[in-house]
Specification:
The chain is mainly α. 62% of the residues lie in helices and 0% in strands. Helix 8 runs parallel beside helix 10. The longest helix has 40 residues. It is flat and about 130 Å long. It comes from Culter alburnus. Its main location: nucleus. InterPro entries: ARM-like, ARM-type_fold, Cohesin_Scc3/SA, HEAT_SCC3-SA, SCD, STAG.
Length: 1128
């Protein structure tokens, strides 16, 4: 076998068409199979034809065919019994053994043909072939029976009838050896001949032969190893009995008994030698060559059966000479092989008696196993973590601190199986240092867990840690009594430890109440009635425990922003209807309301106020009997807040306010803004106060940031609630109310437009977000929108919003975050804010509030800011094609025209190369189905040619170089469009046809630069396996479609808009020098293994090598969420 065949990173595709091995799908065949009894099939005895009168007239070819049919029929009953799975294999094997004892050559021939049939070969080995041909010649003859294009055979076939074929073959081999263990296993004919044939087939070039024979040989070896272990045990027992008999006094010694035991012992020794010879033949003839076969399934079979040998007969196999193969294959390229090696090692390390024999292996390969916890295949990584736990528990040295530290971060991985395995590792590690007192166990465990969480670097991902430990430490994590007593204990827990324990407790409450893992780990599954019942029981336990103690927790931590904001999430998981069941619990409700209202008046942080509002709104639900009590408390809070706000605002508007008035107004308005996001506050008429504050701030430029930001929020939510009310009105009142709302909306947009140019970034950003939100709801669209969409944007507002995007989104933020103390989190937060702003602007384009041509201001930066905003811009471009493919193509062309018109003479060549690079990236976004983009590309080229020819009548040739950019789109054109464009080019540019740019563009149209036009109407040919090594390029199928035609006048499309977009009032900034996109993506380490083709060295000289693997840590900042919000 060639060395190049030893490893292959990928297997060939399985095709059932044209295979020698065909599925039996005919109705009559299925009917015949379905009517078989669950017993041994009837053997078909063919009468001998020797000596008959008909045989005298047969030719040698006829006799050969008849012999093949007889052999195939004789072997078919074994194959059918295994394939169908409905026959009693033990009975089948007993019948075969009876026939073998009558005629051993016929029995061997039947067994050989069974192996051939299991390989999917239609060929047959006859008695003449077996007696006159060598094994190599027989295999060569059988190889010719295979179609060279076929890769299908029973072991890899799909379908219900082949689902248990592999298990059936393995069971057949095991039962065969068991039936021959006392006699035929030592007759030097049956198994020697079978092993010789399997060794030859295992070295065949045909994968079906190699795979099937290796599986049978490996299972045969496993069965023989089991028999050898029993024979060894019997020999040792017989030897001891013989020694005991010999040690007896002469008068009590039985000479006959001693001779009998000695004969039995000699016989067992002979059996041991015979079995050792068979095992050595299989190991050296099959395993040593096939454990590194190019087919991963074959390598996996070898590793699986090697594990059986190591466990069944450790005296012979559990040594470094055999363990080294498992260690070497830990570096295999295929995950299935690595997984099988890890599973094999797990079963070895589970046995305490094997640990001493594994010491050298552990020292050599432990480093590799530690690396495998980051394997790119999650299943391998999961089992590697479990294996490390066994090594840590079973071996004396265990794992070092550094090796354990490599496992701990995996509890935060997004793959739940890997995280749970790491959670089990962490749990057992923490439990190993706990004392044995059960009453202190939970307290100690929670303290250790909190310390671990503090030392970790993932403080925002407590839910991942809790979910990882949920299966193994659920009892400790649901011990609410211990948690709350620790937190309420005065001076019992340090401040940092308190924060960690509150985080863990609240995540445990959520996990117990919802019975679901965190979002990125969640798996869609149907919740059973039992799971719902258990979930309801957990919620009841949480409610009964926390209702009395929760006000105490709030009272103790009411001044701490982080702690109280986390604690306020707990009531959302209570069974709130319990509050109305008794008077004692109603008192607890009053305490809760009092604490929440006091917290709202104490704090100004949005996170605390939002948590309080969520709790109050949940309690105000009409489904609860106590909702009236909660409504009164909320109304009192709002009344006092509005009264205080009105008094302070009056002082501010009159100009007589002091710092206390500004602080009080800002605090009150912040509370009202948060409430406005959750409930209708239009009845309190806050819009006028907010508008006056905003107007005064813009006009006087005495801007109070803490006052204007909540004023913008409150005014925007007022408009939204008004819109909700309008949709519920009748047609008569709807029109008048809408008119009043649009008037307020116009005033609000004017103020927001003024805020876009202020120096304070918070006000500027909030104003832009509010504008995008209100325009989505009220902005007029081209199609039929909702009844609210009657507001038309003026050109100044459009230009101001476009300028905001250019100046503050597509800008270099390094100057803003250049301080030494600025960390990566601030940069990431700033990037997320800019992505949100860009997504809001793209919404306006997609939903028709802004015309499609407004996308030119975004497409200009597609290449420059691809890492930061590439996904948003690409999705916007894709959605624009759905709106109008022709208009979208013209927008792309207009974008390039604007960039070309803004070229500066000093750096013209460099900037021209950047525009060409952008054109290449935009051209790729057009569909690979060239038939669908015929009209859009034709319109794009025509616009580009007209732009390039502007000024030719006056002798101005500056725009001709634009044809160089336009040529980047030529490779997508089909032949009819190429001809049209050539005619159009020669007509428009007739006076400058000899110019270089014109000739270059003409060549791009005539040569079909990147794809031949003729290939567009062809269908890709099917690739032939093994017989054809080269495959042509992908050719586009002929799909006829009609593109939409746009009636817009060409000159009208570019008139005015091009001049408007060339320059902006504010200077442009350079792009980010270093993107922070890597901080948005989850951590992923790629795995790469390098296997060697030559023989591996002995285990003592083996040098383990590292390779990078991959696992994913959680991230709460997913770029996809912006796209989901954008196009929901």
């Amino acid at each position: 076998m060639d060395v190049s065949e030893l490893y292959s990173s990928e297997d060939e595709d399985v095709s059932l068409t044209g295979s020698d091995f065909e599925f039996q799908l005919k109705t009559s065949e299925r009917k015949r199979i379905s009517t078989q009894e669950a017993t041994s099939p009837k053997r078909v005895h063919h009468p001998s034809v020797s000596g008959s009168s008909s045989s005298q007239s047969q030719t040698p070819e006829d006799r050969r065919r008849s012999a093949q049919m007889d052999c195939r029929a004789a072997a078919s009953h074994l194959y059918e019994a295994v394939r169908s799975g409905r026959s009693a294999l033990l009975t089948v094997i007993d019948d075969w053994l009876d026939e073998y004892r009558r005629d051993r050559e016929a029995g061997l021939l039947e067994l050989i043909n069974f192996v051939v049939q299991c390989s999917g070969c239609k060929g047959v080995v006859t008695r003449e072939m077996l007696s006159s041909m060598q094994n190599a010649d027989i295999i060569s003859h059988l190889t010719k029976e295979f179609n060279e294009d076929s890769v299908s055979y029973p072991l890899v076939s799909l379908g219900s009838q082949w689902r248990h074929f592999r298990e059936g073959v393995c069971e057949f081999v095991s039962l065969l050896v068991r039936g021959c263990r006392n006699t035929l296993l030592y007759d030097d004919f049956l198994f020697s001949s079978l092993i010789a044939l399997l060794t030859g087939l295992a070295d065949s070039q045909v994968r079906a032969f190699r795979h099937t024979s290796t599986l049978i040989a490996m299972r045969l070896m496993s069965s023989i190893v089991s028999v050898a272990a029993d024979v060894n045990a019997q020999a040792m027992m017989t030897q001891r009995r013989c020694e005991l008999e010999k040690n007896k006094p002469v008068e009590h010694r039985a000479i006959d008994r001693v001779e009998e035991l000695e004969n039995s012992y000699r016989e067992l020794l002979e059996h041991q030698e015979d079995l050792r010879s068979l095992m050595s033949g299989i190991f050296k003839g099959v395993f040593v060559h096939r454990y590194r076969d190019k087919v991963p399934e074959i390598r996996a079979v070898c590793m699986e059966e090697m594990g059986v040998w190591l466990r069944e007969n450790p005296v012979r196999f559990l040594n470094d000479e055999h363990l080294k193969y498992v260690g070497w294959m830990l570096h295999d390229k295929q995950a299935a092989v690595r997984l099988q090696c890890v599973l094999t090692l797990q079963k070895l390390y589970e046995e305490k008696d094997f640990i001493s024999r594994l010491e050298l292996f552990t020292s050599r390969f432990k480093e590799r196993i530690v690396c495998m916890i980051r394997d790119k295949d999650s299943d391998v990584a999961v089992e590697a973590v479990k294996l490390l736990l066994l090594i840590h528990q079973q071996t004396e040295d265990g794992l070092t601190e550094d090796e354990c530290a490599a496992v701990y971060p995996l509890v935060f991985a997004t793959h739940r199986g890997l995280a749970c395995a790491a959670g089990g590792f962490l749990y057992h590690t923490l439990c190993s240092v706990l004392d044995g007192h059960s009453d202190k166990r939970s307290v100690s465990f929670l303290r250790l867990l909190a310390h671990f969480f503090i030392k970790s670097e993932y403080h925002d991902h407590t839910a991942y840690l809790v979910d990882s430990l949920w299966d193994v430490a659920g009892t400790e994590l649901k011990d609410w009594d211990v948690m709350t007593s620790l937190l309420l204990q005065e001076g019992g827990v340090e401040d940092e430890l308190e924060s960690a324990m509150i985080d863990i407790m609240m995540c445990a409450v959520r996990q117990a109440a919802e019975a679901t893992p965190p979002t990125s780990r969640s798996q869609k599954k149907t919740v059973t009635a039992k799971e719902k019942r258990l979930q309801a029981q957990e919620r009841r336990r949480i409610t009964n425990h926390f209702i009395p103690v929760f006000p105490q927790l709030l009272a103790k931590f009411s001044t701490d922003v982080g702690k109280v904001s986390r604690l306020l999430t707990a009531p959302l998981y209570f069974q709130l209807e319990v509050y109305g069941t008794s008077g004692r619990l109603e008192k607890c409700l009053d305490l809760l309301l009092s604490q929440v209202c006091d917290i709202m008046l104490k704090h100004r942080k949005d996170c605390v106020l939002e948590a309080c509002v969520r709790v109050l709104c949940a309690l105000c639900s009409d489904c609860y009997s106590f909702c009236g009590r909660v409504e009164r408390a909320v109304s009192q809070l709002l009344d006092s807040t509005v009264e205080k706000f009105s008094t302070n605002v009056s002082e501010i508007l009159q100009g007589s306010a002091d710092e206390d008035d500004f602080y009080g107004a800002a605090s009150s308005l912040n509370i009202l803004a948060i409430f406005s996001s959750a409930r209708d506050m239009t009845g309190r008429d806050l819009f006028e106060f907010c508008f006056q504050l905003l107007k005064m701030g813009v006009e006087t430029r005495e801007i109070n940031e803490k006052l204007m930001v909540p004023a913008l929020k409150c005014a925007a939510f007022h408009l939204f609630w008004k819109g909700v009310a309008i949709t519920k009105h009748t047609a008569a009142t709807q029109k008048a109310e809408l008119k009043r709302v649009l008037k307020s909306l116009y005033s609000f947009c004017v103020v927001c437009q003024s805020c876009l140019s202020v120096a304070q970034s918070r006000i500027r950003n909030q104003a832009f977000v509010c504008l995008c939100d209100v325009l989505i709801v009220f902005g007029r669209t081209e199609g039929d929108g909702s009844p609210l969409q009657h507001f038309s944007l003026d050109e100044s507002l459009k230009a101001e919003m476009a300028s905001f995007i250019i100046d503050y989104v597509f800008s270099d933020t390094d100057s803003e975050l250049s301080g030494e103390d600025e960390d990566e989190e601030m940069k990431m937060a700033a990037l997320l804010q800019r992505r949100n702003q860009l997504a809001g602007y793209c919404k306006l384009i997609i939903y028709g509030v802004l015309e499609l041509r407004a996308a030119t201001d975004i497409l200009k930066y597609y290449n420059k800011f691809y890492k930061d905003y590439g996904d948003i811009i690409k999705e916007t471009l894709s959605k624009s094609k759905m709106i109008s493919s022709v208009e979208s193509a013209r927008t792309v062309c207009l974008c390039l025209q604007q960039l070309f018109s803004g070229l500066e003479q000093d750096s013209r060549d460099e900037e021209l190369m950047e525009i060409r690079s952008l054109a290449k990236k935009l051209a790729v976004n057009f569909s690979i189905n060239l038939r669908l983009v015929r009209q859009p590309l034709l319109a794009l080229h025509q616009d580009g040619i007209r732009f390039a020819c502007q000024g030719l009548d006056k002798g101005d040739l500056m725009n001709l170089s634009f044809l160089e950019i336009l040529s980047e789109f030529s490779f997508k054109l089909l032949q009819p469009e190429r001809k049209k464009l050539l005619e159009y080019l020669r007509h428009v540019c007739s006076s400058v046809l000899n110019r270089d740019f014109v000739r270059m563009y003409e060549r791009s149209l005539t040569s079909g630069s990147k794809e031949s036009p003729a290939s567009a109407a062809q269908t890709p040919r099917r690739k032939r396996r093994r017989t054809q090594s080269s495959v042509g390029g992908l050719e586009t199928a002929a799909v006829v479609s009609h593109a939409r035609h746009d009636d817009m006048d060409d000159n009208e499309f570019t008139d005015g808009f091009l001049r408007k977009s060339v320059s902006r009032s504010r200077p442009r900034s350079s792009p980010l020098s270093q993107s922070v996109q890597s901080h948005l993506s989850s951590l992923s380490l790629a795995h790469e293994d390098h296997s060697e083709d030559e023989e591996e060295p002995e285990i003592e000289d083996y040098d383990d090598e590292d390779s990078e693997m991959g696992f994913v840590l959680p991230s709460t900042h997913s770029s996809a969420s912006f796209l989901e919000d954008l196009f929901k």
